[in-house]
From TrEMBL:
Protein name: 5-methyltetrahydropteroyltriglutamate--homocysteine methyltransferase
Residues that, per the record, bind Zn(2+) 1: 645, 647, 669, 730
Binding site for L-homocysteine: 435-437, 488, 603
Cofactor note: Binds 1 zinc ion per subunit.
Reactions catalysed, as given in the entry: 5-methyltetrahydropteroyltri-L-glutamate + L-homocysteine = tetrahydropteroyltri-L-glutamate + L-methionine
Cofactor(s) named in the record: Zn(2+)
Task performed by this protein: Catalyzes the transfer of a methyl group from 5-methyltetrahydrofolate to homocysteine resulting in methionine formation.
Transmembrane intervals: none
Domain Cobalamin-independent methionine synthase MetE C-terminal/archaeal: 430-752
Family: Belongs to the vitamin-B12 independent methionine synthase family.
């Protein structure tokens, strides 16, 4: 019989129960036992679902209170010193993830650990901090308790652990000149102890995740695997799990390791199957990750069956069937989507449904006729969908083909454009602006929700929104900003808003996916050709412009960001979707400038995270991503100023592509890193205008005039002052009005003082 399992299940609960439980606990409304009750219920539910679907193993250890990397740190007793007081305690974990509570004293508590993206997903993990004095000691019983609980319920349990090398690799040194890899021997001792405990619990297989094996690793890292897996070898069998890309490049190392099986991601890299199966050591199992854990489409079980059948014939029971990666990255349960038309619903599978896909496929591989029949029928709806919803219309193809020739260049070069823009916009030296959103107060959210529920009609909604816009414009004028925005009160989310207003997307009601801690996102799904049937933002922007003589900046989300933050189709190249989005946005740009909006910002905060994991695929991605952005801006007249915005600071590797976007102005995040980012601009002479953020919007602190001034000064040493803008790091939607107005006053004042000094 084919063995089946998944690499992990979502832990937020079907209706984000964990999110709400965490937040009420953090707010002091509930105690730890109430929080634990919610978590227990979720875990039991997840296990029994896997058991009901007859998976060979249920997975334990995939639950996380905040993040699974942070959970690993606690398991290993590896907590930053500044937070270690009181450990082991759940509150320690929350302090590392969220920082010390600032309640009461008004002073700052100890800082949270950094958070960063989990490979190329939209999930964020807490970065482990390493220094030479670190020790590791198994001190947090959560994993063992969970195994115990699952066993008590009669489940056959396969626990999951983040592997020692990935754990080290994903962390960072917090000590000058220290090399974290030197901690490996100490770390391995702790892993040995973990394995020994698993053995005592009667665990047969443990899943050890080493996703870094899908990266292009330096030799020292790669060479360390051998020792590591020799040391932690015990009686428990090890399934070495990799995901998110192919391991063909590291296969030489892998096949030499002392483990008992390998899991590969066949959704991300199906092409690796043949080589991996070929070179698989004789006594290993191969876990085939065919059910995509990173998207919401039904698996084409029939073609998966055909793909795996020859491998099954060769390997027999050594072939396992699994999800491609943890199901953490998909929404929980499709059945909750009562608003979806049946036809559409039949295209999708969320985590809960994916578990049964794994099982059906395995049964079919075992030759079960009913299952084979089921697999064939199950795939039918997605095949039909392909025919009915994706045509990539000839006129769209033609438009894109026409653009290919010119790779989306605007009609004039930056220098000429800048000249025209100066005449039209008449902006002062060091112009001040913001990134788009202004505080989303409870009132704003209530109006949007009421309209969505149908409690108020469009006329009422519109006049309420206009009220918010008017207020936002007046406040910006009072503060004295040079380029204003309408404030984005109508947007719940910068991507969902466009998805809701474009043809070709399906939005869901409960399709939440964990982003970090208790935060979840609800990505829309690309289901068909993307088209813009009517203007989306023009009405709001022109209304805002009618209220002021200052230039009003139109606000769009760029094609690459919309693509990165939605679930794309699996049967259409990402580039094609990006181009369709770009054309839709291009029409919006044309309409905005037609309506008298002379500055348009096209946000691309996600362009960097869309980078493929392997460096040899970067250029291809960057080429089409840059082109998609340029297509969106292509119809802008020379005198229309195009802005873009990105909110991160690791620019170095993509700086040339950022320049190639050819936006007239780019605003970026810099204040948190104290302008460190500008180092990237030292070696590379960025040709256009830049607004390095001088106000850290992630903190409630109000930056002083002097602070802002010294940041601008610093920036001016790298970028000619004629090309510098003054603005916050990012949008202000999470801040309150009081902080925002105070901070922006300081920002305007700092710019004014510098202008005076400089002229
Ligand atoms: N215009 C958006 C805002 O201000 C940009 C958000 C982002 O960069 N993530 O909210
Ligand atoms: Zn931003």
């Amino acid at each position: 019989m084919t063995v089946t399992h998944i690499l992990g299940y979502p832990r937020i609960g079907e209706k984000r129960e964990l999110k709400f439980a965490l937040e009420s606990y953090w707010n002091g409304e509930t105690d730890q036992s109430q929080l634990k009750q919610v978590a227990d219920k979720i875990k039991l539910h997840n296990w029994s679902h896997q058991d009901n679907c007859e998976l060979s193993y249920v997975t334990a250890g995939d639950f996380a209170w905040y993040d699974h990397v942070l959970g690993t740190s606690l398991l290993l007793g590896h907590v930053p010193k500044r937070h270690a007081k009181g450990f082991p305690d759940l509150d320690t974990l929350f302090r590392v993830g969220r920082g010390q509570s600032q309640s009461g004293c008004g002073c700052h508590g100890e800082a949270a650990s950094d958070m960063t993206k989990w490979f190329n997903t939209n999930y964020h993990y807490i970065v482990p901090e390493f220094s030479s004095r670190d020790t590791f000691q198994v001190s947090w019983p959560q994993l063992f308790d969970e195994i115990n609980e699952a066993q008590q319920k009669g489940h056959r349990v396969k626990p999951v652990l983040l592997g020692p090398l990935s754990y080290l690799y994903l962390g960072k040194e917090v000590e000058e000149g220290f090399d974290r890899l030197t901690l490996l021997p100490r770390l391995l001792t702790a892993y040995q102890a973990i394995i020994a405990k698993l053995e005592k619990l009667g665990v047969e297989w443990v899943q050890i995740d080493e996703p870094i094996l899908a990266l292009e690793l330096d030799k020292v890292w790669l060479d360390s695997f051998k020792l590591a897996y020799q040391v932690i070898r015990g009686e428990v069998k090890v399934l070495l799990t990799t995901y998110f890309d192919s391991v063909v490049d590291t296969l030489d190392t892998i096949v030499d390791l002392e483990v008992d099986g390998l899991h590969v991601d066949l959704a991300a890299a199906p092409e690796q199957l043949e080589q991996v199966a070929e070179r698989l050591p004789d006594d290993w199992v191969l876990s085939a990750g065919v059910v995509n854990g990173r998207n919401v489409w039904r698996a084409n079980l029939y073609s998966a069956l055909k793909q795996l059948q020859p491998v099954k014939d060769r390997l027999g029971d050594r072939l396992w069937v699994a999800s491609s990666c943890s199901l953490l990255h998909t929404p929980v349960d499709l059945e909750l989507e009562t608003g979806l038309p049946t036809v559409t619903k039949n295209w999708f599978a969320f985590a809960k449904q994916k578990v049964s896909e794994v099982q059906w496929l395995a049964k079919a591989l075992d030759g079960d006729d009913v299952a084979i029949q089921y697999c064939a029928q199950y795939s039918q709806p997605i095949i039909e969908r392909d025919l009915s919803t994706w045509v990539n219309k000839p006129e769209v193809q033609k438009r894109i083909a026409g653009l290919n020739l010119k790779s989306g260049l605007r009609s004039a070069q930056y220098r000429q454009r800048a000249h025209h823009q100066k005449e039209v916009l008449k902006l002062p030296l060091l112009p001040t602006t913001t990134i788009g959103s202004f505080p989303q107060t409870g009132e704003v959210r209530n109006v949007r929700a009421a309209y969505k529920r149908g409690d108020i009609d469009f006329a009422n909604y519109q006049s309420a929104m206009q009220g918010f816009i008017k207020d936002t414009v007046e406040r910006q004028e009072a503060v004295g900003l040079d380029v204003l925005v309408h404030g984005e009160a109508e947007r719940n989310d910068m991507v969902e808003y466009f998805a809701e207003n474009l043809e070709g997307f399906q939005t869901t009601q409960f399709g939440w996916v964990q982003s970090y801690g208790s935060r979840c996102v609800k990505p829309a799904i690309v289901v068909a050709d993307i088209e813009r049937k009517k203007p989306i933002t023009v009405e709001w922007s022109t209304y805002a412009q009618s209220l002021t003589d200052k230039p009003m900046k139109g606000m769009l989300t760029g094609p690459v960001t919309i693509l990165c933050w939605t679930f794309p189709r699996e049967d259409v190249p990402r580039e094609t979707i990006a181009n369709q989005l770009a054309l839709a946005l291009q029409d919006e740009v044309s309409d905005l400038q037609q309506a008298g909006i002379n500055i348009i910002q096209i946000d691309e905060p996600a362009i960097r995270e869309g980078l493929p994991l392997k460096a040899n695929k970067h250029q291809d991605y960057l080429d089409w991503a840059v082109k998609a952005f340029r297509i969106s801006a292509q119809t802008a007249k020379p005198e229309t100023q195009i802005h873009t915005h990105m909110c991160y600071s690791e620019f170095n590797e993509i700086i040339e592509s950022v320049a190639a976007l050819d936006a007239d102005v780019i605003t970026i995040e810099t204040s948190r890193s104290n302008m460190e980012l500008l180092n990237a601009f030292e070696a590379f002479n960025y040709p256009n205008e830049i607004g390095p953020g001088v106000y850290d919007i992630h903190s409630p602190n109000i930056p002083s005039v002097e602070w802002i001034e010294q940041l601008i000064h610093k920036a001016a040493t790298r970028i000619p002052v004629e090309r510098l803008w003054v603005n916050p790091d990012c949008g202000l939607k999470t801040r309150n009005w009081e902080e925002t107005e105070q901070s922006l006053k300081h920002l305007v004042q700092a710019a004014a003082q510098l202008r005076e000094k400089l002229t």
